[in-house]
């Protein structure tokens, strides 16, 4: 499963080429979105729903209404952190599909300990510590597959999927039996008071998780494309045999990749809890990581593109719930729209690659 | 009042089969697809497709046999999209796989909403084939040898696949398509044909597994009813490293753990349910730790084949 | 030119193939006739393999026509090629590693049929016997050395009973003895009416086995020698003519340099690289009791038939394979417990023969591949940050110095021709300070000019005081460069001989197991 | 105060003959009775409900009903942020004047009656409980059911099994586990689960009891008699309309948030479904027990934690 990314040599293009590229990128990103809406619009027509009103509501809510766009931006925070997590892993050729459990581990431990810390230390200390805890426990959960892969050669797709199932169960065991808020009958952790959560941006309801997520994705992008450490990881990912031959410490790098990747996933859980939700309920699993996986692939592991796709996905998921309700369409339709969008974006990528090849020939 | 009567043991063993057969079919299907170099993460969607179409046809026609056939067809219909996008056009297999799963989840839930959400039709019990002689064995007999034909088919597929992989040119070609497609291509065989065939075969098996869930194991279709069985199928296929018998063992292990969890609860053993539910996953991790060293995957797994590309 | 008799099996008319940034084949006209060995020559990257890929159906021309038996017929796929009777041994292995040789040989037969393993194995063994190589049809391909794989591919191609056989650098991995046998076979096939296209960088082979020569340069056919001409010319003159066509000058590669001068006595005091009773457990050919010393400035050749543990030896010294007993010393310090990177830091270099598998990262640019073993080192990285200008400058410099033919230094290295990938490897390993260098088949796949340049570089490396271990299956190369020659047989050193007048004979004896010393 | 509309949020679709459907139907009925509009947001899942809450709050409905225990942190927070009154479940302590009220809907009294009914109807003396998970509302009914059985027939055996940690849609699992319970001797199944309850129903319909007779099914929350094939013994019916109607009235009187709401046998918001499977004399006896509960002679205390349920069912 080696993915040869095309931006490896990062062409330093001339200005006119650049302008053409920007147009190309715009056409390449808006075109497929439109095409996807036409296709799902046809299905809506079959269901006797006016597609224009439906998508009017989707974008009206997800992008153009003040509270809607704030919800979209808030939703992006944890997703961006997961994108950062996956970019590190995928660029290093590590198929970490266990992001959901790593996310939950981070969420559960941050939720368990931060409310306990708050009375004793300044809030910002508690929040920073909570984020550190979440990253730490996310990373810890990632270390099992890391060591199995690095020192036993065990394929990480199997182990991360298994650790995912195990982690979901463990998270709910922890919530129900260990970190239970004694004050409620509902199995959930103690709640971090609204005023103790991560600050929102100015007078909005946008969680500062958005900023953390943006910084994380950009930092990861920079590290992976512009630093020696990132290059080492990419060598391991592209050809492990060559990495061994070049004298890279492949097992250590593998463990490092897992720790960073799972750490970001854990931090994503922590930021979601500390910034938005305040507590974790038993059996809670928003399954964000599985949604981000295809987005990161479509972005070809590029941080900027990932931000774009995460934004699009967030707009769609915030907007279509509202549209479904207003139009009387079952919410399941959102799944169909996302599926069509992913396929059309994949097709656009294919078409673009062919165009590039033709242009080069 | 003893709990562990014959009847109870039979039910537990039958439970292993009921939970294990869809996993076995999913694992065998995924194994076929992976051997040919296509990482099929869309099998959850194929399973749902099979579960829905199988149930619909069985319900509408009143024939479970037709239902199972339609289930295989439903899986193949979703698989055909995978063939078009990933084998023919070479799009990213993980993106398309996840998209197909989401799409099938949404589509079958919508269809269920329109058709069944008021009536929740349930099918009568599926007729079983009683194997004379074997069915008389105490406990094991009724649980294993008086079953729906699909169960026998699933079990028979295990040696069939061993035979296919080892003893036919097609088997060699499938392995070549996953390990070094260029070699297969230069030997004059179509990589696309082999991969398409494998993915369609995968879809048929997985769809049949889904139909088994909706027609036989549940007798009813509800949205998202495969609830992750497809992903467990992926794990089983990877765990088995190309050997069908290992898929069978893995599926049996999973089924056994589920039945064991039920048995423990029914027996009133007071461990938290969530802990009991971790059993199968913990068991697989244990197997991985003990036996899973150096799991080798086909070299070209996940990579689209483009002739002459360097 | 009036055509007498049947039309050529394949006729190329204005065939053109373009890749991004390069015209790999530029309007090529060529005829390939039954009963002829048609030798295709050209420097690395000239476009030979590209032509082969179009003849075998792996690529389609962007322009031009292909005629089969005088009738236009595109070779749309490998299946069509096979149907026409075109059988190819590609430059890079086309065997499935996870299948045995027999199973590889049966690929392509009808799906439903049961593989006839016994029958195919017998046929393979028979064909192998005919060309004088020995192979184990039941062996799993991944356990075989590159040389053994190449032999198996030749056998498989011959088994297909083709009327048109293409051999793309098929002798690159063979010993001169085996190459001669293959040559004789080509002649025999030609006399039986088969058309053979033979690509090689060894001009002596070209002149000896070829009926007709075509020379490619920068994608264009720049000339050729017709059969009558070739027959009348004599070996010497023909070689000179070929060199003129290929490089535009005729005094290339003239006469191998004499043996190296003996080392000064003081160089022999302290060895740089020392192996002490080294054992390594490996699946097929374990190393046992390997002992030798290499002094500063000394080149120790390792001769032997391919697959006798040479690769294990190189990997054990480089740190890529575990050592079960014995020690390795570099400049007096024990290095056998050190990691690959630590050994490299001490000045140990290993030029691998597996240029695609481990030597390079195919999807990465030439520029990055040139620095693959120095990631993080200044001036290319400062404080861990990439310095693109420095990386580029380094690449441009190496590209010039080593004559790497690439559209740009940003081109993914996997897109280069085999020989040019090899140049990237050499360029990477032969710069900077080195104490000991292991060369594993350093010139395989290189054209004449590049072989000469590479050999000069190996000499230079030694002259600067490094110890050199030269693993090669080319005896001439070893005799040209080495001070001493160790012969490997079955994972042992059968003997070490000084490079004197008797060396060639004694090596032959050692290789064939006649004597041991 | 003024009230022109109410909004209700549910995690799943309102077509499940269960929790979601009862909530939505109740809200619609209460709104219709009060002559106001009901806005329904269904199928929201348990992931992130805040955006929907904020959007609904924009239209300033008189009341937002957050109909899932998973919403009981988010709803009061958004209510406070936007100044909209919210009703939540499973958080009796969250009461806040003119802001938050709780309606912990627990059918435990009805489940107790179901236990009495099961004990009287069981031929084998073994009854089974199947649940798709262990949320508080399931637990309180499982526990009360067990108490009802024990109180009626102390030597009865109760078999208890959970399909999976969150196996709400696992219909095949529901059937498999139910079949195991039947094989363990149960001839009455008390089943709780959304999609998976159809698998339980299927098991009951296709598996004979140990004595070869019929196994009967006791459902919860909704009324599945329209789709019954003669195996539905009863159901612990919830009716949320009175609860919501009381809320609307309180909003009008500015007394919302002064007290919590509940469902009980007393006002008929909890009831036991009568089906043809129940013989008249048994029904009469069960109704007698009901009267004792209503009159306070028998008190049924809810147990919301899984451990209490395990203790009750294993205490054989
Ligand atoms: N698939 C491809 N994509 C891009 N460029 C290619 C491809 N195949 C060949 N080339 C380019 O075409 C040119 C000719 O390559 P080719 O492999 O035919 O050379 P060659 O004559 O066989 O050289 P060598 O002797 O080194 O094997 C090279 O510059 C190479 O980089
Ligand atoms: N991992 C392995 N398992 C089994 N056999 C092996 C393995 N590695 C090497 N061999 C066998 O050991 C023998 C020596 O291999 P080695 O690679 O050292 O030969 P070589 O002369 O260096 O060849 P080349 O340089 O062409 O690869 C070969 O016959 C090969 O089949
Ligand atoms: Mg070539
Ligand atoms: Mg070697």
Summary tags:
heterotetramer, C: about 525 residues, alpha/beta, Rossmann fold, 2 domains, six-stranded mixed beta sheet, about 35% helix, about 25% strand, D: about 325 residues, six-stranded parallel beta sheet, 10 helices, about 40% helix, globular, binds adenosine-5'-triphosphate, binds magnesium ion, ATP-binding (chain C), ABC transporter ATP-binding protein (chain C), ATP hydrolysis activity (chain C), ATP binding (chain C)
> What is the total tally of β strands of chain B?
2
By DSSP (H or I, 4+ residues per run), the number of helices of chain B equals: 13
| Mean pLDDT over all positions of chain B | 89
What would you call the structural class of chain B?
mainly alpha
Classification by helices and strands of chain A:
mainly alpha
**Which value, in Å, is the CA radius of gyration of chain B?**
20 Å
Low-confidence stretches of chain B: none
The bound ligands are:
adenosine-5'-triphosphate, magnesium ion
How large is the radius of gyration of chain A?
Answer: 21 Å
The share of residues in extended strands of chain A comes to: under 5%
Largest sheet of chain B: 2 strands, antiparallel
- Cα(first) to Cα(last) distance of chain A is 27 Å
Overview of this structure, please?
The complex is a heterotetramer of chains A (361), B (310), C (517) and D (316). Chain A has a domain at 70-286. Helix content of chain A is 75%, strand content 0%. Chain A contains 13 helices and no strands. In chain A, helix 1 (15-46) crosses helix 2, helix 1 runs antiparallel to helix 13 (333-360) and helix 11 packs across helix 12. Chain A starts with 14 loop residues before the first helix and ends with a helix. Mean pLDDT of chain A is 88; it is low at 1-14. Chain C has 517 residues and is an alpha/beta fold. Chain C has 2 domains: 8-247, 3-Layer(aba) Sandwich (Rossmann fold), CATH 3.40.50.300; 269-347 and 433-512, Rossmann fold. Chain C has helices at 48-55, 78-84, 101-106, 117-131, 146-159, 176-191, 203-209, 227-233, 235-247, 310-318, 340-345, 355-359, 366-369, 388-401, 418-429, 448-463, 475-481, 503-511; strands at residues 10-19, 22-32, 37-42, 63-68, 71-72, 86-89, 164-168, 195-199, 212-217, 220-225, 273-280, 287-294, 299-303, 325-330, 333-334, 348-351, 381-382, 385-386, 436-440, 467-471, 484-489, 492-498. Chain C is globular and about 70 Å long. In chain D, the strands form 2 sheets. Chain D has a 6-stranded parallel β-sheet, with helices on both faces. In chain D, strands 7-6-8-9-10-12 form a 6-stranded mixed β-sheet, with helices on both faces. In chain D, strand 8, helix 7 and strand 9 (216-221) form a beta-alpha-beta unit. Chain D is globular and about 60 Å long. The mean pLDDT of chain D is 91. One magnesium ion is lined by residues 145, 310-311, 353, 440 of chain C.
């Amino acid at each position: 499963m080696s993915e040869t990314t095309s931006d490896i040599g990062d062409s330093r293009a001339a200005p006119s080429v650049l302008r053409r590229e920007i147009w190309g990128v715009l056409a390449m990103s808006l075109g497929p979105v439109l095409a996807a809406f036409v296709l799902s619009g046809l299905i809506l027509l079959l269901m006797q729903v006016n597609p224009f009103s439906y998508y009017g509501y989707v974008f009206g809510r997800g992008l153009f209404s003040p509270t809607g766009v704030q919800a979209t931006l808030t939703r992006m925070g944890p997703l961006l952190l997961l994108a950062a997590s996956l970019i590190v892993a995928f660029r290093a050729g590590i198929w970490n599909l266990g992001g959901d459990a790593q996310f939950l581990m981070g969420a559960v431990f941050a939720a368990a300990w931060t409310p306990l810390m708050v009375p004793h230390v300044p809030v910002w200390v508690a929040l920073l510590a909570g984020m550190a805890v979440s990253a730490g426990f996310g990373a810890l959960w990632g270390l099992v597959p890391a060591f199995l892969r690095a020192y036993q050669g065990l394929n990480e797709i199997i182990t991360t999927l298994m650790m995912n199932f195990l982690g979901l169960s463990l998270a709910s065991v922890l919530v129900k039996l260990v970190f239970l808020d004694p004050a409620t009958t509902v199995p959930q952790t103690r709640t971090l008071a609204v005023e103790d959560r991560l600050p929102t941006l100015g007078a909005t309801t946008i969680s500062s998780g958005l900023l953390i997520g943006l910084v994380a994705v950009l930092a990861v992008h920079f590290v992976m494309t512009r630093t020696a450490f990132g290059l080492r990881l990419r060598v391991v990912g592209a050809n492990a045999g060559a990495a061994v031959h070049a004298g890279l410490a492949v097992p250590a790098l593998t463990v490092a990749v897992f720790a960073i990747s799972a750490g970001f996933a854990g931090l994503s859980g922590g930021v979601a809890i500390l910034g938005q939700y305040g507590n974790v309920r038993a059996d809670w699993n928003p399954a964000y990581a599985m949604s981000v996986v295809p987005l990161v692939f479509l972005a070809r592991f590029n941080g900027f593109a990932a931000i774009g796709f995460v934004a699009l996905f967030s707009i769609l998921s915030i907007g279509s719930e509202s549209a479904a309700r207003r139009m009387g369409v079952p919410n399941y339709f959102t799944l169909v729209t996302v599926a069509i969008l992913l396929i059309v974006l994949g097709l656009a990528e294919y078409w673009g690659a062919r165009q590039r090849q033709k242009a080069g020939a | 009042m003893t709990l562990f009567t014959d009847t109870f043991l039979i039910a537990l063993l039958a439970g292993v089969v009921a939970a294990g057969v869809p996993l076995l079919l999913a694992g065998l299907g995924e194994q076929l697809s992976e051997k040919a170099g296509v990482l099929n993460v869309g099998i959850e969607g194929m399973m749902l497709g099979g579960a829905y179409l199988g149930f619909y046809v069985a319900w509408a026609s009143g024939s479970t046999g037709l239902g199972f056939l339609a289930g295989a067809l439903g899986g193949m219909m979703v698989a055909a999209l995978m063939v078009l996008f990933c084998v023919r056009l070479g799009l990213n297999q993980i993106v398309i796989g996840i998209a197909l799963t989401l799409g099938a989840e949404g589509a079958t839930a919508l269809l269920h909403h329109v058709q069944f959400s008021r009536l929740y039709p349930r099918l009568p019990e599926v007729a079983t084939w009683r194997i004379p002689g074997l069915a008389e064995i105490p406990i094991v007999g009724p649980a294993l040898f008086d079953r729906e034909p699909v169960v026998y088919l699933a079990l028979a597929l295990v040696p069939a696949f061993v035979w296919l992989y080892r003893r036919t040119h097609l088997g060699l070609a499938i392995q070549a398509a996953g390990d070094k497609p260029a070699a297969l291509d230069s030997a004059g065989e179509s990589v696309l044909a082999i991969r398409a065939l494998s993915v369609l075969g995968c879809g048929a098996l997985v769809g049949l597994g889904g139909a088994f869930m909706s027609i036989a194991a549940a007798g009813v279709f509800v949205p998202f009813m495969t609830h992750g069985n497809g992903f467990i199928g992926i794990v089983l296929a990877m765990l088995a490293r190309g050997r069908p018998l290992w898929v069978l063992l893995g599926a049996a292990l999973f089924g056994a753990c589920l039945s064991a969890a039920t048995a423990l609860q029914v027996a009133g053993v007071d461990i938290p349910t969530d802990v009991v539910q971790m059993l199968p996953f913990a068991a697989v991790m244990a197997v991985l730790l003990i036996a899973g060293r150096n799991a080798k995957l086909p070299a070209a797994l996940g990579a689209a084949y483009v002739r002459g590309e360097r | 030119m009036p055509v007498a008799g049947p039309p050529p099996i394949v006729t190329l008319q204005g065939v053109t193939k373009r890749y991004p940034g390069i015209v790999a084949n530029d309007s090529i006209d060529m005829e390939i006739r039954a009963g002829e060995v048609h030798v295709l020559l050209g420097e690395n990257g000239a476009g030979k393999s590209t032509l082969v890929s179009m003849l075998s159906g792996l690529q389609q021309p962007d322009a031009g026509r292909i005629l089969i038996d005088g009738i236009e017929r595109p070779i749309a796929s490998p299946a069509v090629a096979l149907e026409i009777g075109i059988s190819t041994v590609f430059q890079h292995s086309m065997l499935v590693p996870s299948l045995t040789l027999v199973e590889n040989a049966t690929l392509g037969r009808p799906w439903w049929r049961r593989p006839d393993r016994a029958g195919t194995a017998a046929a393979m063994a028979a064909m192998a016997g005919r060309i004088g190589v020995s192979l184990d049809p039941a062996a799993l391909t991944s356990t075989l050395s590159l040389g053994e794989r190449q032999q198996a591919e030749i056998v498989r191609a011959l088994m297909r009973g083709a009327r048109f056989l293409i051999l793309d650098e098929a002798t690159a991995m063979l010993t001169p003895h085996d190459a001669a046998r293959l040559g004789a076979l080509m002649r025999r096939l030609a006399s039986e009416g088969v058309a053979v296209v033979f690509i090689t960088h060894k001009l002596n082979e070209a002149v000896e086995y070829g009926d007709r020569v075509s020379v490619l340069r920068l994608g264009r056919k720049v000339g050729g020698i017709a059969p009558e001409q070739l027959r009348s010319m004599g070996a010497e003159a023909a070689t000179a003519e070929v060199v003129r066509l290929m490089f535009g000058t005729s005094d290339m590669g003239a006469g191998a340099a004499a043996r190296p001068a003996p080392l000064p006595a003081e160089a022999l005091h302290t060895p740089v690289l020392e192996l002490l009773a080294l054992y390594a457990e490996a699946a097929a050919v374990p190393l046992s009791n390997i002992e030798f010393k290499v002094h500063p400035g000394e080149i120790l050749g390792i001769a032997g038939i391919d697959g006798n543990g040479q690769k294990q030896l190189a990997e054990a010294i480089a740190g890529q394979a575990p050592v079960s007993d014995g020690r390795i010393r570099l400049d007096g310090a024990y290095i056998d417990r050190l990691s690959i990177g630590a050994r490299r830091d001490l000045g140990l270099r290993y030029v691998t023969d597996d240029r695609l598998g481990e030597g390079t990262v195919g999807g990465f640019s030439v520029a990055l591949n040139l620095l693959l073993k120095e990631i993080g080192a200044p001036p290319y990285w400062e404080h861990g940050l990439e310095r693109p200008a420095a990386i580029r400058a380094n690449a441009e410099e190496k590209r010039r110095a080593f004559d790497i033919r690439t559209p740009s230094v940003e081109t993914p290295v996997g897109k280069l021709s085999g020989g040019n990938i090899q140049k990237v490897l050499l360029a990477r390993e032969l710069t900077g300070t080195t104490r000991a260098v292991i060369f594993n088949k350093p010139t395989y796949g290189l054209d004449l000019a590049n072989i000469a340049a590479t050999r000069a570089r190996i000499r230079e490396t030694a002259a600067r005081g490094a110890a050199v271990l030269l693993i090669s299956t080319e005896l001439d190369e070893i005799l040209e460069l080495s001070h001493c020659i160790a012969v490997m047989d079955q994972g042992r050193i059968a003997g070490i001989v000084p490079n004197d007048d008797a060396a060639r004979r004694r090596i032959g004896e050692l290789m064939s197991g006649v004597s041991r010393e | 105060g003024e009230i022109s509309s109410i909004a209700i949020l549910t995690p799943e679709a309102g077509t499940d003959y269960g929790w979601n459907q009862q909530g939505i139907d109740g809200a619609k009925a209460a709104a219709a009775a009060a002559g106001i509009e009901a806005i329904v947001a269904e199928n929201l899942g348990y992931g992130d409900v805040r955006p929907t809450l904020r959007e609904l709050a924009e239209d300033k409905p008189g009341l937002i009903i957050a109909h899932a225990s998973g919403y009981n942190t988010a709803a009061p927070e958004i209510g406070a942020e936007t100044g909209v009154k919210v009703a939540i479940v499973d958080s009796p302590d969250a009461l806040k004047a003119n802001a938050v009220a709780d309606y912990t809907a627990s059918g435990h009294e009805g489940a107790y009656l179901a236990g009495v009914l099961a004990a009287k109807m069981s031929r084998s003396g073994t009854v089974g409980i199947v649940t798709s998970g262990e949320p508080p509302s399931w637990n309180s009914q499982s526990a009360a059911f067990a108490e009802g059985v024990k109180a009626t027939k102390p030597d009865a055996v109760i078999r208890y099994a959970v399909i999976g940690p969150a196996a709400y849609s696992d219909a095949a699992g529901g059937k498999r586990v139910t079949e195991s319970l039947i094989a363990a001797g149960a001839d009455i199944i008390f089943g709780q689960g959304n999609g998976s309850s159809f698998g339980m129903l299927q098991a009951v319909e296709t598996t004979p009891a140990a004595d070869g007779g019929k196994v009967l099914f006791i459902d919860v929350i909704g009324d599945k008699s329209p789709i019954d094939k003669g195996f539905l013994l009863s159901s612990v019916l919830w009716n949320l309309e009175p609860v919501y109607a009381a809320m609307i009235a309180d909003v009008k009187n500015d007394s919302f948030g002064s007290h919590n709401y509940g469902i009980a046998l007393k006002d008929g918001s909890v009831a036991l479904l009568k089906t043809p499977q129940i013989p008249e004399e048994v029904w009469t006896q069960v109704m007698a027990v009901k009267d004792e509960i209503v009159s306070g002679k028998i008190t049924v205390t809810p147990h919301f934690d899984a451990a209490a349920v395990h203790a009750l069912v294993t205490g054989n």
